[in-house]
From TrEMBL:
The lineage of its organism: Bacteria, Bacillati, Bacillota, Clostridia, Eubacteriales. This is Bifunctional protein FolD. The keyword NADP applies. CDD domains: NAD_bind_m-THF_DH_Cyclohyd. One of its GO terms (cellular component) is cytosol. One of its GO terms (molecular function) is methenyltetrahydrofolate cyclohydrolase activity. It comes from Clostridium tertium. It catalyses: (6R)-5,10-methylene-5,6,7,8-tetrahydrofolate + NADP(+) = (6R)-5,10-methenyltetrahydrofolate + NADPH; (6R)-5,10-methenyltetrahydrofolate + H2O = (6R)-10-formyltetrahydrofolate + H(+).
Amino acid sequence: MGKIINGKEISNDIKEEIKEYILKRKELGLRPPKIVSILVGNDGGSVYYINNQEKVALSLGCNFEKLLLNEDILEEELLKKIELLNSDKEVDGIILQLPLPKGLNEKKIINTISPTKDIDCLTYINQGKLFCNEKTYLPCTPNSIITLLERSNIELEGKNVVVIGRSNIVGKPVAQLLLNKNATVTICHSKTRSLKEVCKAADIIVVAIGKPKFLTDEYVNSNSIIIDVGTSSLNGKITGDVDFEKVEQIVEKITPVPGGVGALTTTLLIKNSCEALENNEN
Ligand code: NAP
């Protein structure tokens, strides 16, 4: 296996597994999973994500519905729509595109989604389960990191992993998932001292800070495994948090940007909908 951890290749493997799963169900006369993705308003990033979700879901044989709502929708109306989706037996997974327009109570709206249909792991109940190491839908970016490592046959148990970044969507949940896999995890942030030394002593470094090319050759050694989560725009190009050209020459394994962590997230979201379908049927 080469030095570059190829997210696209791993994503394609998982896509094949999903396709096969759905095909087998169809052969047995069983329906595919159905996802409803809600977009309130027309935030540029969210429009891109929802269109991409639709494209991937349909290509794998899922049913997918976009629920496009006006940005001036009343909160009660949005809550009612979510409740209707919660009680619709034909709907397995609900995705809510974030951020919501100003004026809407994001936390309340997220937590109205039924945890059994919350395939993006946004609700407090599912996040609580994740932190208690109970079965739940894994949040896509943290799950992508774990999947890239595991499918590259990188053992996590007992490894020293440094996570740089402590956001609620990446740093904290990935640290918890790594801990659930029996890694020894150090979480670093903007106030961490001697970050270079801490990183150099690690087996695996996950960097999610949104600072292009931050992690240079001074942070790594020849045995380091580097997972780059960053996706900043630099001179019109999507750029990771790692100075790839320099670091790649030294380390054992590394993910590229693009084509690393981000290449898997939508695929894993669709995979969660297959799990949701089974939960819905039981
Ligand atoms: P965020 O909420 O802005 O959090 C950034 C974290 O980085 C904070 O915890 C911050 O520390 C820490 N940090 C900032 N500068 C630092 C420094 N110099 N040294 C050490 N730590 C530092 O970011 P996020 O939402 O987690 O996203 C991080 C990056 O991942 C962004 O580029 C984002 O676009 C990308 N991302 C990619 C995907 C994907 O699918 N590929 C998904 C989500 C996010 P403090 O807490 O001390 O401020």
